[in-house]
From TrEMBL:
InterPro entries: NAD(P)-bd_dom_sf, SDR_fam. Belongs to the short-chain dehydrogenases/reductases (SDR) family. GO terms for molecular function: oxidoreductase activity, acting on the CH-OH group of donors, NAD or NADP as acceptor. The keyword Ion transport does not apply. The keyword Oxidoreductase applies. It comes from Pseudonocardia sulfidoxydans NBRC 16205. Keywords: Oxidoreductase. This is Short-chain dehydrogenase. It comes from the Bacteria.
Length: 205
C-alpha cells in the first residue's frame, strides 16, 4: 500500500481489501520516505513549514495510517509484528526535516508498542544508515560534487564512518527486518535497532 500519498479513508479501504483477501495480516513493514539527499538543506531563515510538513505527512502519518488500519486484524488474531523503517538521521542533526521525521517515527513506535504489546503485537523501529541500493552511486556523486571532492574520496569517507568498514547492503538491512517480523523477536518491543554497519561516534544506550 502507498499510504504516503493516500488519506486515512483510502488506507482503511485498502487495508480492508487486503485483510479480506488474505484472511488477516500478521506483519506490517512501513517503509516510505523521500531519500535524505532530496530533502531541502536550508538554514532556519529559509526553512519553510512545508519542508517539514511533507516529511511528516509521508513518513510519520503514512506509517500511522497503515498501523491504524491493520493493527485491529493482528489484535484479533492475538499476534502480529509492525516494523517501522526510520533512519540514523534520528541520531544526527543533519537537517531539521530529516531528523525530526525519523525521531517522530521512533516516538510513535514506542507509543504503539505500549498499547499493542500486551495484545500480542510487537512494534519496533529499524534505523538504516547509508545503504547500498540502486541510488547509492548517484547519492555519492551528488555529495562529492557538493563538497568539491572526487567520488572515490566521498565513498571512502562514507565507508570509514561504519565500524564494519563498508556500507551495509539493502539485503543485510532486510535480514534485520525479517528477524523483527519473526516470533523469535518477542523480546524487542518499542525499541529502535540501528542497521547501518555500526555508525561511529556517539555511543547510544
Amino acid at each position: 500500500m502507498q499510504a504516503d500519498t493516500a488519506d486515512d479513508d483510502s488506507v482503511r479501504a485498502m487495508a480492508s481489501t487486503v485483510v479480506a483477501e488474505l484472511g488477516g495480516v500478521d506483519v506490517l513493514v512501513n517503509s516510505a520516505a523521500r531519500p535524505a539527499s532530496l530533502i531541502p538543506q536550508r538554514g532556519l531563515d529559509e526553512l519553510t513549514d512545508d519542508d517539514v510538513r511533507i516529511e511528516l505527512e509521508t513518513k510519520l502519518l503514512g506509517y500511522l495510517r497503515c498501523a491504524r488500519a491493520l493493527a485491529p486484524s493482528m489484535v484479533a488474531n492475538g499476534w502480529g509484528r509492525i516494523v517501522n523503517v526510520s533512519g540514523l538521521n534520528a541520531r544526527q542533526s543533519v537537517s531539521i526535516p530529516g531528523s525530526v521525521r525519523n525521531i517522530a517515527v521512533a516516538a510513535m513506535s514506542a507509543a504503539l508498542a505500549d498499547e499493542l504489546g500486551p495484545k500480542g503485537v510487537n512494534v519496533s523501529v529499524v534505523h538504516p544508515g547509508m545503504t547500498v541500493t540502486r541510488g547509492t552511486e548517484e547519492l555519492i556523486a551528488s555529495r562529492a560534487e557538493a563538497q568539491g571532492i572526487d567520488e572515490a574520496t566521498m565513498r571512502a569517507r562514507a565507508e570509514s564512518g561504519t565500524r564494519i568498514g563498508r556500507l551495509a547492503t539493502a539485503a543485510e538491512v532486510a535480514d534485520v527486518i525479517v528477524f523483527l517480523c519473526s516470533p523469535r523477536s518477542v523480546a524487542i518491543a518499542g525499541d529502535a535497532i540501528a542497521a547501518g554497519g555500526g555508525a561511529r561516534g556517539v555511543t547510544h544506550y
